[in-house]
Amino acid sequence: MDSKSNSQSHPPQFSAIIAGNIDGRTDNVRYRQRQFHRLQASILTHLAELKEAISQDSGHSVEEVQTEVCLALKEIRSHYSCLSLEKSVQLEYRVARGEDHLDRKKGAGIVYIIPTTHTTFYSVIAALSAALAAGNCIVLELPKTTSRVTALLRSVLPGALDSDTFAISESRPDADFLSTTLVMDQQSSGCPTTYPTLESPNTLRTVAVVDRTANLQEAAVDVVQARFAFDGRSPYAPDAVLVNQFCMQPFVELVIKHAAKHLGSDNHGASSLPKRPRQASLLDKLESEGVKVIVSGTGWGVALLQNR
């Protein structure tokens, strides 16, 4: 990314980030490895506090909180594993050996991260780890809210990472600054932007597909678990399941069997952290069109669609 930007028009922490990007501070693999070590150590130090904050914010079960934390730590390990000091040294001295370095890779420069409100901790760590491993300076948007996870991250991350290559922003900076960055937007509504953006729209429907070669027992378990996990607010919870007509009946029976324990369940959680912007219920729309609803509970149902 073009690093040209008037640092005087931005908060002091952005000036440091711009300078760090110009200096190429994150190009060094050993530097990135040290940042990963400090990040993981800081998370492990505050692990109990993070789990408690996630639980209070989301209302998720102990197992779901543990899953989010483990997956976040796995992201750190996975991205750290792709860094090799020996390989970086070999690539750096290609020119000295008279060899071309045509496959050289360089980070975007400055990455501005807008995390989603669902599983905030995992969303932040996953994006942060990827941006760090790629050799970028990072600005993380964490506004002051009532979220305990956000407040904890605001106090933990700055102490773990170098202030010359990492900063937290309380509000969205102007377009001039964003145009010098790569914006990783996990809350995207799909609207066009004037700055480089890597979007993850959170308003789209999620569809699961079960074909005739599927293991129906495993498919039913996975679909039901995905639908009800995290109080059904996950962006990846299937809104609709497309099933091959030759295996539809046995699949529906298995889904009803595994979903039975959720009958009458409110699946309530933290209402302040919705899965996505509120939309008209898909089930209500189907019922109004005369679709047969086989079984339903609070906020969910199994409906049979014959007409494609």
Automatic annotation (TrEMBL):
Gene3D superfamilies: Aldehyde Dehydrogenase, Chain A, domain 1, Aldehyde Dehydrogenase, Chain A, domain 2. GO terms for molecular function: oxidoreductase activity, acting on the aldehyde or oxo group of donors, NAD or NADP as acceptor. SUPFAM superfamilies: ALDH-like. Residues 29-153 form the Aldehyde dehydrogenase domain. It holds the Pfam family Aldedh. This is Aldehyde/histidinol dehydrogenase. The lineage of its organism: Eukaryota, Fungi, Dikarya, Ascomycota, Pezizomycotina.
